[in-house]
Write a structure and sequence with these properties.
The chain is an alpha+beta fold and about 300 residues long. The chain has a domain of about 80 residues. Strands 1, 4, 7, 8, 9, 10, 11, 14 and 15 form a 9-stranded antiparallel β-sheet that branches. Strands 2-3 form a two-stranded antiparallel sheet. It is flat. The two termini are about 25 Å apart. It comes from Sphaerotilus uruguayifluvii. This is CRISPR-associated protein Csd2. InterPro entries: Cas7_Csh2/Csh2, CRISPR-assoc_prot_Cas7/Csd2.
Length: about 300
Amino acid sequence: MSLTHRYDFVLLFDVKDGNPNGDPDAGNLPRLDAETGHGLVTDVALKRKVRNFVGLVHGEQPPHEIYVKEKAILNKTHERAYEAIGAGDALKGDDKKRKGGGETVEKARDWMCRNFFDVRTFGAVMSTGVNCGQVRGPVQMTFARSVEPVVALEHSITRMAVATEAEAEKQGGDNRTMGRKHTVPYGLYRSHGFISSFLARQTGFSGDDLELFFKALEQMFEHDRSAARGQMSTRGLYVFKHESELGNAPAHALFDRLTVAPTAPGTPARGFGAYAVLFDGQPLAPGQSLPAATGVTLTRRC
């Protein structure tokens, strides 16, 4: 079933006593906006969780294989596409030269879209080495930003063991080693997303794929637990469905009407109950739908 509507959505999620997205260039500290102190989570991190959820649910089987995954060698996947479309001869020759062109690339690109969920959802650049072209995905997401500034805490931790005998001798028999752990006491984050039916038709992104994507956003943190990330949960998924493919209202105008504000300003938040989520000043219950504008319907999925 192909998409015939434009969609925009707002994703709310929170973290409690954890690091939602460490910055490797800053000693894995939680990502922050240096000017405002608001917490950040990259779109790449959110897409990673969607990929992991889909791979878990569908066992990495076509048409729900995952292209960008841990330890993947992308050109090997491109070679699979060429073999599948009967263009294996194009792989022969100098490995340093980019292979494929014209109709072969189009067929390879279509094969990648059919078999890999993340390619037809988020798009991919597959034009290096074995050339499978480029795909512009119908689903795009922004960085998530915390509703209020967050505090990044640093904790000292102790490990009651050492890795080698040399370390044990250095410690003089006291096999204690010290480490650091970074957390955010609490933060509520908001991300915006956009889904184009025109690009969906180009990649084969279907209504079933859309439902799977929304399901992933709702449940991805339930299957991505780790000590470093603390407690993370999806707190709301608000979907704007437009009657037309071009859209019936600007996305930013719809997003501005969905407000998230502290219920006790000036008091540090330590839970989701410290915030009120309102649309045009009114709360929206899970599963409830309402007309958001002429030709636009808003549904709270969770």
